Amino acid sequence: MKKNPLKEWFVFSRRDRNAAFILLGLLVIIIILPCFLPSKKLNIHVNTALQAELDKYRQENTQPFYAASYADTAGADSIQLKLFYFDPNTLSEDGFVRLGLSPKTAHTIINYRSKGGHFRKPEDLRKIYSLAKADADRIIPYVRIAPENKPTITSSGNSQPGEKPKPSYAFNQLKKTEINSASVEDWKAFPGIGDVLANRIVKFRTSMGGFKSVDQVAKTYGLSDSVFQVIKPYLYIKE
């Protein structure tokens, strides 16, 4: 009688069946054994100081900062910004924060002033790149810039027809200034020179390694020839 080859594949001997049962038992044990073993908790050490810094940074960069007072209006809490008149050339960093600006923007304004920046009109505040338009629109109406206490050159009224008006500025208030040692404050004492221009002259002098002649001062960017001609007689260079 001819054997069926397919049947031979599905016929197991006693040894084969015993081996299959043993493997099946081992597989079941491996699967259920972890359920009866005690689990170990993974302890993760968290740096609390670092986490606090991260939380602070996230809060400052995701939520707007407002110096505000809270009041109960019609049974609901409302935020009222404390606006006041101020001079952006003299207001402290904390003062800008009280106006509702972020500490980052307030620091940027102070840094701008420390580098010789000066606000001559309220709209100059818009030059601060980190100042949002909404904040600028809100605080600019409260800007009050004090006039600079600078002497001006005016006509004395004693000039003859056809002659240029003679200045009535009290030049005896000016002093001879050595251009290679003059400080920013020394330059600001001259008429027509403010914070920005005084700082620019000092930086220009430093970049050149010192002035070699009085006329080199006139090459400072932003210094007009008319102003230079007025102050030139009071400048000298130490040999």
| Low-confidence residue ranges | 63-80, 151-170
Return the CATH architecture of the domain at 65-142: Orthogonal Bundle
The helical percent reads 25-40%
Rough outline: elongated
Mean pLDDT: 76
Task: Please state how the strands of the largest beta sheet are arranged side by side.
Answer: 1-2
Class by alpha and beta content: mainly alpha
Beta content: 5-15%
**How many strand segments?**
4
Distance between the termini: 131 Å
So what's the CATH class of the domain at 65-142? Answer: Mainly Alpha
Order of helices and strands: HHHEEHHHEHHHE
CATH domain fold name of the domain at 65-142:
DNA polymerase, domain 1
Number of helices: 9
Task: Report the biggest beta sheet as strand number plus sense, adding barrel if it closes.
Answer: 2 strands, antiparallel
Query: Rounded to an integer, what's the Rg over CA atoms?
Result: 40 Å
Organism: Parafilimonas terrae
Pfam family, one: HHH_3
Transmembrane segments: 20-39
Keywords: Membrane, Transmembrane, Transmembrane helix
Your description of this structure?
- The chain has 239 residues and is mostly helical.
- Among the domains are: 65-142, DNA polymerase, domain 1, CATH 1.10.150; 171-236, Photosystem II 12 kDa extrinsic protein (DNA polymerase, domain 1), CATH 1.10.150.320.
- Helix content is 39%, strand content 7%.
- It has 9 helices and 4 strands; from the N terminus they run αααββαααβαααβ.
- The protein has helices at residues 5-9, 14-36, 48-62, 93-98, 103-114, 133-139, 184-188, 195-208, 225-231, and strands at 68-73, 76-81, 177-178, 235-236.
- The strands form 2 sheets. Strands 1-2 form a two-stranded antiparallel sheet.
- The model is unreliable at 63-80 and 151-170 (pLDDT under 50).
